Each structure stands twice: as C-alpha cells, then as structure tokens.
Amino acid sequence: MTQVTSQSWLQPDWPKPAQQWVNRSLGELDYQVIGSLALIKGWSLGYVYKQKTNKGNVFFKATASLPLFSNESQLCATLYDLFPNAIATTLAYEPRQQWLLTADFGTAFVDTVPLSDWALPFNAFAKLQQRSIQHLDKLIDSGCIQRDIRNLPDQLTAMFANDNITARLPKDMPQSAAQISEVMTKLTQQINALLQLGLPNTLVHSDLHIENIAPNTALATEPASEPFIYFDWSDACISHPFIDGTYVFRMEKTPAKQQIVQAYLSQWQSYADMEALHEAWHLAEGICYAHQAVSYGAMNHILDHDMDLLHAFENAFRRFMVNLLNK
Q1: In 161-212, alpha helices (H)
Q2: How many CB atoms lie within 10 A of CB 136?
Q3: Most buried residue, 34, 222, 227, 324, by CB count within 10 Å?
Q4: CA–CA separation, 39 vs 303, rounded Å?
Q5: Which H or E element spans position 215?
Q6: Measured between alpha carbons, how far is 232 from 318 in angstroms, rounded to an integer?
C-alpha cells in the first residue's frame, strides 16, 4: 500500500486536483458533472464534498494518511465488492491519494434517535463481522491494517514513555508511574482472559456509532438487501470484534443499552453461550479504551492543529486509565 507524505488538501491549489479527478472519473462512468464540489466537512482527518450530477448527488472523500488509519479508499472498494448491500456504492477510488467517490446512499441516522434504535444496526453489524472472517486476507491486502489486541500493552508502554505524548495528557488524569504500571498489568490480564474465550478476529469499524450508519433505502425495492449501510471506514482494522463496542460501553446503564448489547451478542452464540459472551463483553471494555488511546496517541504529530482532536485524545487516555484503575 502506497501513501502520500502529506494530506492532499494541504496542496496550495486544493480542491482543484480533486475536482479534476472527480470530473474525469465521473466522465468515464457517463455522468455529467453539475457545478463544483461543495464542502460538507473538513478537518484534520479528512475532507468530504458533495458533487451534483445528472444522475443525482455523489460524494467525494479524501482521508488522512496516518499510521493507524487503513487505506479507506481501497478498503471501501473491496468492502463494496464483498458486501455490496451494506456498503456505499464505490464509483471510483485513488488509493495513493486516498480519494473515494461514492453514490448517494441516503440519510444517516442522527444522534438524537432513541438509543433503542441502535439495536438492529448492531445486530446486523455482528453478522457482517462474522461474514468478514473468510475474507480477512483480502481485506488486509486492500489496506485494512491488523491491530491485534495482544500488542496494546507494548504500544501504550511506548506512548507513556514518549514525552511528546505525556506532555499532552490531561492534568486531571491518573498518570503516576505506579498507576500506569497497575493499569498495564490489568490490561494484560484482561487481554489474556478475553483471548481464552476464543472469539475470532474480524473486520472492525473502530468508530461504530449511529451517525456512521444509514437505513438502506434499497429495501423498498430489494427485500433481500442488507437493512443498513455502514460508512466512514478510515479507522477500520482487523481485530477483536468487540472493539466496536466503544460507544456502547460509554452509555449509561439503561434498558436501552442492555437491548443494544443483547442484540449484538445474540449473533455470537455459535462461539459461546450468552453468559460467556457477557463476560467477554465486560472484559472487552477496558481493552476497547486501550485501542482508542493508541489510535489517538498515533495522531500526536497533528494534535496541535486541531483542538477537537486534542480533546478526543485527552478523553481517550483519561477513559482508559480511569476504567482500568476502577476494575
């Protein structure tokens, strides 16, 4: 997988190169471009634009080239090939620049929906994860990175020894040498216990929340289609499937949360009974937070340029340390 050394939107004539590529790519598909790219969102991790055409809107995304980001454009093309009813239609992609062009897939859920509305998408995503198991080699070849949970203690130990990272840690976070040592011991124990339960590594989204999911409008005419479209795959990796509980773990304990967990875990009963699965889910929480802390620690070199990203970094490390210390 080749990567550029800097983000494409930092080019002085941006977004002209993107517009030229979009025009050329759509022209080859017999689309007529109407107007110019319209910015939807831009920040340190990527830029998303809408392009009007004679066949409806299409969407262009440029993803950041970062150490723990997959090559989203190439990966999404493969995901669409493998799971066409659950992934946005890939029209074109440029893997070196990490540019992706997709068809309109409708409107995503909003974060104000009732929490109970998360249950069915998570149930369906568990099925997708299990279907991915037979395709892991192909996904890896397509730029999906491998992030084995057994590597987390060493990765975090290195980060806590990095002055550039520790200088940015929130002052109210437990971070004494004794506390870090205690947390690393607990993390290693929990990883070993989780691995003993025998769940396989799968495709992991790593940023699975309701706003990265859309109802599949094709269901109206194609009843066999998947019920949901999953998008924004920049953080995707191959890892323990329960890493995708990151947002659910952080919810307050309510009947709606239990409904989500039950819906998700119910799809894993071919690997263990529900009691063992709930034990695995409990073990996975701190490991999931460790995974997120490593993700943001790997963005250390760009934190000073984005306060939202810096706050996410601080929250990830605080959440990881506090959770493990309280176990």
Answers
A1: 163-166, 177-196
A2: 16
A3: 324
A4: 23
A5: strand 213-215
A6: 25
Annotation: CATH topology of 8-103: Phosphorylase Kinase; domain 1 (3.30.200)
In tens, the pLDDT along 182-232 reads 999 999 999 999 999 999 999 999 999 999 999 998 755 566 568 999 999
Using CA atoms, how far apart are residues 53 and 306, in angstroms rounded to an integer? 33
- Kind and range of the H or E run holding 28: helix 16-28
Residues 229-287: pLDDT tens digits?
A: 999 999 999 999 999 999 999 999 999 999 999 999 999 999 999 999 999 999 999 99
Residues 28-77: tens digit of each pLDDT: 999 999 999 999 999 999 999 999 999 999 999 999 999 999 999 999 99
For the record, the structure tokens of 87 come out as 């992934």
Q: Which of 20, 213, 18 is nearest to 122 (CA)?
A: 213
What fold characterizes domain 115-325?
Answer: Aminoglycoside 3'-phosphotransferase; Chain: A, domain 2 (3.90.1200)
Place of tokens 């940023």: 207
Domain definitions of the chain by residue range? 8-103, 115-325
